[in-house]
Design brief:
3-stranded antiparallel sheet
Length: about 190
C-alpha cells in the first residue's frame, strides 16, 4: 500500500464505476446480449451427446442443426424427452469399507479413553495395574468394554458378509455399539 506523500498515493477517494447490466427479465435462452455465450446440446436418441458454444445464435447452416437444442445447463449424458433436459441420478455413495468401520470404531474407543483425560485407548489400557486405584479401575472397565465393542463389531461383520444383515452406515453402526459402564471407583476423574 502506498504511503501518503508517495507519488502512487491517491489523494482522492476511489471513483465509483457504473456499468449497464443486461435486462434479465426475459429468460437467458430468448435474450442475446453482446458478450454472452449461447450453449447448444446435440441430442441423439434422447441423450445429450455433445455441446457447442456460440457467441450468438447457432448458424442456420450448422451440420445436423435439427439435432441441436439451445440450453445453458444441460451436460453430456443428460436425457432429453423432447421438451426438457433431465440430469442423470447422482451416483450412489459407495458402501463403507472394513477399514472405514475399523477407523470409526477405534475413534469411538479412543474417545471413551479421552473422556477420562487419557491420550487414547492404548494409554488407558496400560493403567490396568496402576498403583492409583482410580486409574486401575478405569482401565479395567475400559478393557472389558473395549473387548465387547470389538467382539460385537466382528460378529456383525460376519453377519454382513454372510448376508444375514444389511450393511449399516458407519453412523448407524457406531450407535449400535455397547455403552461403556465405568465402575463407581472408575467413574471418578
Amino acid at each position: 500500500m502506498a504511503a501518503v506523500g508517495d507519488p502512487h498515493h491517491l489523494a482522492t477517494a476511489p471513483r465509483r464505476v457504473e456499468t449497464a447490466l443486461p435486462d434479465w427479465s426475459s429468460s437467458p435462452s430468448s435474450v442475446h446480449h453482446k458478450g454472452f455465450q449461447m450453449f447448444y446440446c446435440k441430442v441423439e436418441n434422447g441423450m445429450v451427446v455433445n455441446r457447442a458454444v456460440f457467441d450468438a445464435e447457432m448458424p442456420e447452416d450448422w451440420p445436423d442443426r435439427e439435432a441441436w437444442v439451445q440450453n445453458d445447463a444441460a451436460q453430456i449424458g443428460w436425457s432429453h424427452d423432447g421438451e426438457e433436459f433431465i440430469a442423470p441420478p447422482a451416483p450412489e455413495e459407495p458402501l463403507p469399507t472394513v477399514e472405514m468401520y475399523q477407523n470409526a470404531i477405534q475413534a469411538t474407543v479412543d474417545a471413551a479413553a479421552q473422556s477420562k483425560q487419557f491420550n487414547d485407548g492404548v494409554t488407558l489400557a496400560s493403567y490396568k495395574d496402576s498403583t492409583n486405584p482410580i486409574w486401575a479401575a478405569q482401565a479395567t472397565a475400559f478393557i472389558a468394554w473395549r473387548d465387547q465393542v470389538w467382539a460385537y463389531s466382528y460378529a456383525q461383520l460376519a453377519e454382513v458378509e454372510a448376508g444375514q444383515r444389511e450393511q449399516p452406515s458407519i453412523a448407524d453402526f457406531i450407535v449400535e455399539l455397547p455403552a461403556i459402564e465405568w465402575s463407581a471407583e472408575g467413574a471418578q476423574g
